[in-house]
């Protein structure tokens, strides 16, 4: 269905939000009130969607998210199927809080563990949860012992942009390969915390200069919205793109192709869990009608 409507034939990665439920209530979480909702994929539904994406769109990688994916009871079953039966690259994005037992269990099937951190020590814990910083570092240590590659994500805010470099260096020391920097968007919980929004775009220019001069060993990937002028419009080829990097499925089955549309309920496509296929549900506010540009990432 996606190919018929858009011309897109290949989607490299599926971001699969297994559930909304989470053991954190981060101040900037784009899910907002949905963290209280019970929507979730069953193991069978998740496996069916993974298989559909692999077979119909050549999807070669999956990132499992939530909520918090490690509180999802069937995580091992989904991870094992994705790796053993479909041969996908399997990544999990987690808060890293008290996941040691389950991480050890799924280690043979996991290609990358990415922890979410929002700064050093108390800065991170204020946004996420008390004790979460040390917990995440402990998990990075365990992952290294288990032979799992690691990375991290950080949402740049008005409270933590001075800690990007210190965090990158700390992650280096723990053997992490990559730090991915996101732009905070005013959706979900972030709407209630405007103090976290960066209101001076010049901050991003300074941050980029600092990163260029830091000579870090860790790879830093930067959301292009983290720039003084904002991200450039992405120009699709005539007739639309034939391939996109990612599509995101939320726990209801709603699909989003543009990062900028996440959290805004602008879904043009849905995965019908009962029927086991993707359907097109156009509206005046969906991401196709509004032509929402995608986020561009660049390596510093």
Condensed summary:
This protein is an alpha/beta fold and 300 residues long. The protein is built from 8 helices and 12 strands. The two termini are 36 Å apart.
Q: Would you give an account of this structure?
A:
The protein is of the alpha/beta class and 300 residues long. It has a single domain, classed as Aldolase class I (TIM Barrel), CATH 3.20.20. It has eight helices and twelve strands. Strands 11-10-9-8-1-2-3-4-5-6-7-12 form a twelve-stranded mixed β-sheet. Strand 8 (243-249) and strand 9 form a beta hairpin. Helix 2 (43-57) packs parallel to helix 3 (75-85).
What key attributes describe this structure?
300 residues; alpha/beta; TIM Barrel; twelve-stranded mixed sheet; 12 strands; disordered C terminus
Secondary structure blueprint with pairings:
Elements: H1 2-6, E1 10-17, H2 43-57, E2 61-65, H3 75-85, E3 89-94, H4 100-106, E4 112-116, H5 122-127, H6 132-146, E5 149-156, H7 164-173, E6 178-183, H8 202-214, E7 219-223, E8 243-249, E9 254-256, E10 269-272, E11 277-280, E12 297-299
Parallel strand pairs: 1-2, 1-8, 2-3, 3-4, 4-5, 5-6, 6-7
Antiparallel strand pairs: 7-12, 8-9, 9-10, 10-11
Helix pairs in contact: 2-3
């Amino acid at each position: 269905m996606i190919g018929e409507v858009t011309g897109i034939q290949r989607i490299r990665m599926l971001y699969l939000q297994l559930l909304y439920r989470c053991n954190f209530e981060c101040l900037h979480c784009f899910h907002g009130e949905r963290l209280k909702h019970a929507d979730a994929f069953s193991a069978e539904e998740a496996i069916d969607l993974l298989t559909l994406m692999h077979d119909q769109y050549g999807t070669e990688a999956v990132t499992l998210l939530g909520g918090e994916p490690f509180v999802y009871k069937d995580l091992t079953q989904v991870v094992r199927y994705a790796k053993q039966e479909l041969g996908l690259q399997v990544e999990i994005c987690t808060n890293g809080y008290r996941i040691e037992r389950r991480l050890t269990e799924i280690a043979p099937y996991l290609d990358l563990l990415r922890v979410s951190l929002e700064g050093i020590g108390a800065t991170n814990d204020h946004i996420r949860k008390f004790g979460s910083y040390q917990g995440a570092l402990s998990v990075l240590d365990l992952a290294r012992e288990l032979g799992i590659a690691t990375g991290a994500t950080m949402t740049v805010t008005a409270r933590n942009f001075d800690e990007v470099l210190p965090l990158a260096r700390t992650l280096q020391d723990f053997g992490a390969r990559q730090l991915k920097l996101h732009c905070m968007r005013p959706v979900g919980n972030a709407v209630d915390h405007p103090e976290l929004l960066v209101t001076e775009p010049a901050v991003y220019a300074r941050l980029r200069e600092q990163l260029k001069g830091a000579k870090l060993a860790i790879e830093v990937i930067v959301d292009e919205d983290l720039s003084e002028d904002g991200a450039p419009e992405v120009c699709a080829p005539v007739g639309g793109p034939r391939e996109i990097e990612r599509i995101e499925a939320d726990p209801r089955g709603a699909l989003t192709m543009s990062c900028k549309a996440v959290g805004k309920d602008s879904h043009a496509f849905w995965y019908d869990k009962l029927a086991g296929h993707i359907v097109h549900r156009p509206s005046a506010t969906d991401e196709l009608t509004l032509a929402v540009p995608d986020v561009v990432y660049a390596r510093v």
